[in-house]
Specification:
The protein has helices spanning about 15-45, 50-55, 60-65, 75-95, 215, 220-230, 240-275, 285-290, 310-320, 325-340, 380-395, 395-400, and strands spanning about 5-10, 115, 125, 135-140, 145-150, 155-165, 170-175, 190-195, 200, 205-210, 275-280, 295, 305, 340-345, 370, 380. With about 400 residues, the protein is α+β, with helices and mostly antiparallel strands.
């Protein structure tokens, strides 16, 4: 089993400066490699530059610029070039599929925040202490950096990454060979229906509240963004006060992200401990949060008809605040580790189907919260009905009754 561990780094001032320089130099390497590919395609008869070509130039680049490129790990620079190669391959794949291509863009120093070391011991070394009291990780060109290791690392460390989030630094360990820790069977199954009014509803009728972290901090974020917007001039945007205001906004969003992840982990752990099998809707969050297409007015060229974009924007914000996709990913990982089973089912009409007679109609859903079957007259909570139908589609209804 694969697992990633993320630990907070506690670098000194000098080490923090070296880490920032490492990110900046890898960013420069990425942008230079992208520029070379663009120039070769535009000016040299549409010549394609491959990863092998650019990797072969690394030694010459390191010799030519020993102060910026020569002091960092060779394998980490190869990983940066592979990162660009994956972006280019994805671009050409989208072009062939007729999708929106999205050509790879140059990275600003604020957007290039990760350096990957493909193998532990090659440019980096993970030194875990026996009692988690003096754990350190060594990076070439930086030195031994203290790690706040809050849990034991199991398995074999394969890759090591250093990541910057705001003013914090983290080390991410990708490990394999981690044994599962199966929990004892409890003989219970459940279907869950994800929503906005309630974060999720179980097939037994239990509701788990939606914390709405983004909505709760909306006023604080708006105030911080208004302060950030008071720096209109280009010169002000590089001032110390502007940088502090930008960090304030980023810090608020980072706090919300951590709160949301903490909530997801706790809810997923409670479900895995309580049920052997968990069924959920297979949701396309990207499609659900897509903005409605504009409607042109045929009688008035250049104008558009109302399309409900404002109302849809509010719903999209609520869906993204709930974080369904991240939660389902966390639930699947915890279930795999605990030896539980997660069953995704088709989400179509789960809240419009009567669990008693099976009648499907749009009119069954009276409101966001109420369900009333137009055929048999069953009245129930709409989210509860959806969870029951999810359980049925997974073929677990008999197990739940038993």
């Amino acid at each position: 089993m694969l697992r990633a561990y993320k630990f907070l780094l506690r670098p000194t001032k000098r080490q923090e400066q070296a880490l920032a320089e490492m990110l900046a130099d890898h960013c420069s390497l990425y942008n230079g490699a992208l520029q070379e590919r663009r120039d070769a395609w535009r000016h040299v008869s549409k010549t394609t530059v491959t990863y092998g070509d650019q990797s072969a130039q690394l030694r010459a680049i390191r010799t030519f610029d020993p102060e910026r490129q020569g002091r960092w790990s060779f394998s980490s620079q190869q990983a940066t070039l592979r990162r660009l190669d994956r972006a280019m391959r994805a671009f050409f794949r989208r072009v062939k599929a007729g999708q929106t291509p999205g050509y790879p863009r140059f990275k600003g120093t604020g957007r290039f925040d990760t350096v990957v070391f493909p193998r532990d011991g090659d440019g980096c070394r993970w030194d875990s202490a026996p009692h988690l009291t003096d754990t350190r990780v060594r990076f070439q060109g930086v030195g031994h950096v203290r790690v706040h290791q809050h849990r034991r690392v199991r398995g074999r460390v394969k890759t090591v990454s250093v990541k910057r989030e705001g003013r914090r630094w983290y080390v991410v360990l990708a490990c394999d060979g981690i044994p599962t820790e199966p929990l004892p069977a409890v003989g219970a199954v459940a279907g869950i229906d994800l929503g906005v009014a309630h974060f999720l509803t179980l097939s037994n009728g239990e509701h788990i509240a939606n914390p709405r972290f983004l909505q709760g901090a909306a006023e604080e974020i708006a105030q911080a963004q208004r302060h950030l917007a008071t720096f209109p001039a280009r010169t002000d945007r590089r001032s110390k006060k502007h940088r502090a205001a930008a960090r304030k906004v980023a810090g608020l969003h980072a706090r919300i992200r951590r709160q949301r992840l903490d909530h997801h982990h706790k809810v997923a752990l409670a479900l895995v401990r309580t049920y052997d099998v968990i069924a959920h809707e297979q949701l396309n969050t990207t499609g659900l949060t897509r903005s409605p297409a504009p409607k042109t007015d045929p009688g008035r060229p250049g104008t558009f008809l109302p399309n409900g974009a404002a109302a849809k924007a509010g719903l999209n914000a609520a869906i993204l605040d709930a974080g369904w996709g991240v939660f389902l990913s966390i639930l699947a990982n915890k279930a795999e580790s605990a030896g539980r089973q997660v069953v995704p089912v088709d989400a179509r009409n789960t809240s419009r189907t009567c669990p008693a007679c099976g009648h499907v109609a749009k009119e069954n859903r009276i409101s966001q919260a109420r369900f009333q079957c137009t055929a048999c007259g069953l009245t129930a909570n709409a989210d509860h009905v959806g969870a029951q139908n999810v359980l049925k589609r997974a073929g677990l209804a008999r197990c739940a009754v038993a």
